[in-house]
Design brief:
Elements lengths: L4 E2 L5 H12 L3 H13 L13 H10 E2 L4 E7 L5 E6 L5 E8 L4 E4 L3 E3 L14 E4 L2 H18 L4 E6 L9 H11 L12 E5 L5 H8 L3 E5 L5 H7 L1 H6 L2 H10 L8 E7 L7 H11 L4 E7 L13 H13 L3 E5 L12 H7 L8
Parallel strand pairs: 1-2, 6-9, 9-10, 10-11, 11-12, 12-13, 13-14
Antiparallel strand pairs: 3-4, 4-5, 5-6, 7-8
Helix pairs in contact: 1-2, 4-5, 10-11
Length: 355
Amino acid sequence: MPEPANLLNFTLEALKEFAARELGQPGYRADQIYQWIWQKGVLDVEAMTNLSKDLRAKLRECACVQPPKPVETLESDDGTIKLLLELRDGRRIETVLIPGQGYYTQCVSTQVGCAMACSFCSTGTMGFVRNLSRGEILGQILTGRAELAQRGLDPLRNLVFMGMGEPLLNLAAVLESLTELHRPLGMDFSRRRITVSTVGIPNGLEALGRADAALPAISLHAPTQALRERIMAKAAAAMPLDELMAAADRYPLRERERITFEYLLLGGVNDSPSEARELVRLLGQRKCKVNLIAYNDTVGLPFTAPAPQRVLEFEEFLRTHGLSVTLRKSMGADIAAACGQLAARQAQELPSSLT
C-alpha cells in the first residue's frame, strides 16, 4: 500500500488536483481542507467538521497531515522557546520562537545542515545534508503556532528565515513557501512580516526580489572582502563583496523599506574602530539599516563574545555617522538558541545511518 500523501507538501492548486483525482471532490472542498490546516491549524482530519463523515474517512485512507515532530523543547529565562524537530526521515532541525512586545517571531530553518560553513556558525559544522521540502518549511510554522497556543502565549506575527541552512540555496522550496504564506485562505502573512536572510548567492537576491514576497537581510559580518574571506570563506568566494553590494542595491524596495545588513560582532575579530570605519565607508550612502548582534560564546567554535563597552562604542560610531542601527538583544543564550547549536549536538548522537 502506498504511503499516505502528506497534505503539507501540496500547494492549494495541487490540493485541488488531489481532491479531484483521489477523492472525486470539487475545488471548494480543497479550499476547506486547506483552510482547516493552514488558517485554523487543525491537523486531525476527523476535526474538519464541515467535511462529510464519508469524505473524512476517504481522506484518512489516502492522506495525512504530518508536520515536523518536536523531540526536545527548551525554554529560556527570557521567554525564548527552542524546538528540536524530527522530520519523517529521522533528520533533525531547529526552530526558535522569540518573544516581542505582544507577539512572537519565529526563526525558520530551510536546510538540514548548511554548505556555507561560516566559521562562527554551529550549523556549518554539520555540513550540508539536504534541503527541506516546502511542507517541512511550512510545517515548522504550524508546530510553532501550536506550541504558542498550547502555552497560552502571544500570537505569532513575524517570520525570519534565519534558522539552519542558506535559504537561497533552497530557492525553489523557499519561494513556494512564501507563496503559500501569503494566501488569505491560509496563514495570510504580509510581505513586510517575513524576512529572508542570506549570505549572498548569485542570482538569489534577484529571484527573491522578483517574487516580491519578503524583505531581505544580508548576513554581512565583515566590511571588507579580505575579512569576509577569513570568517566566511565559501560565502566570500560565491559572491565577492562588490557583487553582493551591487545585488543589494538592485533589490526592489517599496517606499520606506530598507535593506537590512546583519553584523555579528566577534570579539577581537571584527569589532574594532577600524572595522566600524570600514562599515561606514561601505554602507554610509546606502538605503539600509544595520542589525548588530553580539556573539555568544559557543562550545567548539574559536570565537569569544565582544566586550560590552566595545559593542556600545561600535554601535555609537555607526549611529553618529548616519547609519540606522539596531543592537539586537541576544535571546536564548541559556538554551543554546543560536542557529544549529542543539541540532549539531544531537547529530553527533544519531545512528550512523543518519549521519
